[in-house]
From TrEMBL:
This is Centromere protein U. InterPro entries: CENP-U. The gene is Cenpu. It comes from the Eukaryota. It comes from Nothoprocta ornata. Its main location: nucleus. It is found in: Chromosome, Centromere; Nucleus.
Length: 195
């Protein structure tokens, strides 16, 4: 089995094993085996020095590789987070655009309703004033029955309205008369058929 080499300050998991860990593990075995076969203390010291320097370099390399892996992992996580945030931002922008359109529509409708309300208020006030004026005229005629009504050019619109009302009533009576005449004609025909 290969030992996971954990230099100081670097967090490593069993899944982080690389070829360098295998090389370092095998190197340690080979160096220990070779050292046992050598009799000379000087050679053993030289082997220890060489092994120590090689292990340090390999450990530094493992550390750098692991740091790079950790940075790549963090980078991938950051990119994932950025993509999520981007999607959320796009969704919020779409919602905002829809909300702005709804707001504009509601503002238009509100302006129309205000205009209608204003028109209705003016029309109600006009009708109230007209009713009051009509009542004043009726009261005046009751108080002064002998006084003859005089119409001037300013009364022309009122006279036109009055004439329309009279003409409308005349047409209505003509329609009634025509229907009565048709009903009478039908009854006469039925009576003549019976006799």
């Amino acid at each position: 089995s290969v030992r996971v080499w954990c230099p100081k300050g670097v967090k490593r998991l069993p899944k982080d094993i690389t070829e360098l860990d295998v090389v370092l593990s095998e190197f340690e075995k080979i160096a220990a085996d070779y050292k046992q076969r050598v009799d000379s203390n000087t050679c053993r010291k030289a082997i220890d020095g060489f092994c120590s320097g090689f292990k340090d370099q390999l450990a530094d390399l493992i550390t750098e590789v692991q740091k790079l892996k950790n940075v790549k992992r963090k980078n991938a996580k950051v990119l994932t987070d950025i993509n999520k945030k981007r999607q959320q931002l796009l969704q919020v922008c779409e919602e905002l655009t829809g909300t702005e359109q709804q707001l504009k529509q509601l503002q238009r409708e509100y302006a129309q309703l205000q205009e209608r309300e204003s028109s209705l208020r003016h029309a109600t006030q006009f009708l109230t004033d007209l009713k009051e004026l009509q009542q004043n005229c009726l009261d005046y005629r009751e108080e002064n029955p002998k006084e003859k009504a005089v119409y001037g050019t300013s009364s022309l619109p009122a006279l036109l309205v009055e004439s329309r009302r009279i003409l409308g009533a005349e047409r209505h009576f003509q329609n009634i008369n025509t229907r009565l005449q048709e009903a009478l004609d039908v009854q006469r025909e039925e009576l003549s058929k019976k006799h």
